[in-house]
């Protein structure tokens, strides 16, 4: 094959553009710490929803970061804790989900069964959960469904800690 200098330049330029567009982007960690998840009583046997709202501040990740730059968000760690080691004894399982005003609800983690006589548990993140749409909003809603054994009149309150890996382009 015989390429002219202009075709060579065009070929090299296209190759560089293709490689640049395939870059992985910048990956950073984002944490939500000690957020109170609450379900107001009375609560009934079966699934009950604890929730909290978290304001998204992209500038804590990088100054000038905009929602349009976010490529992917994955939950990497999720823990739920309480001050009473017996407080999980009436819970069969947990399902963690995230949603926001303009993003669909995403199941992001699960723990089944919930261990007894412990004050803190780690949920298993869902590998397929893609949470970028939630992080492109001003705030997101954290939903923790607790499958309760029996009824109770009191509120149910736990503390959540969540870690995400955010991939974005500069």
Structure, explained:
A hairpin with a 2-residue loop joins strand 4 and strand 5. The protein has one domain: Jelly Rolls (Sandwich). By secondary structure, the protein is mainly beta.
Question: What is the structure about, briefly put?
Answer:
The protein has helices at residues 5-21, 132-135, and strands at residues 26-39, 46-55, 70-81, 91-100, 103-111, 120-122, 124-125, 139-148, 156-168. The protein is mainly beta. The longest helix has 17 residues, at 5-21.
Would you list the SSEs in sequence order as H and E?
HEEEEEEEHEE
Rounded Rg: 22 Å
The major β-sheet equals: 5 strands, antiparallel
In total, how many domains does the architecture comprise? 1
Number of extended strands: 9
CATH class: Mainly Beta
Distance between the termini: 38 Å
Characterize the overall form.
elongated
Question: What structural class do helix, strand and pairing data support?
Answer: mainly beta
Q: Reading side by side through the largest sheet, how are the strands ordered?
A: 2-8-4-5-7
Low-confidence stretches: none
- Beta-strand residue percentage: over 45%
- Number of H- or I-type helical stretches: 2
Examine the secondary-structure arrangement and name the CATH architecture. Sandwich
- CATH topological fold name: Jelly Rolls
Helix content: 10-25%
Mean pLDDT: 90
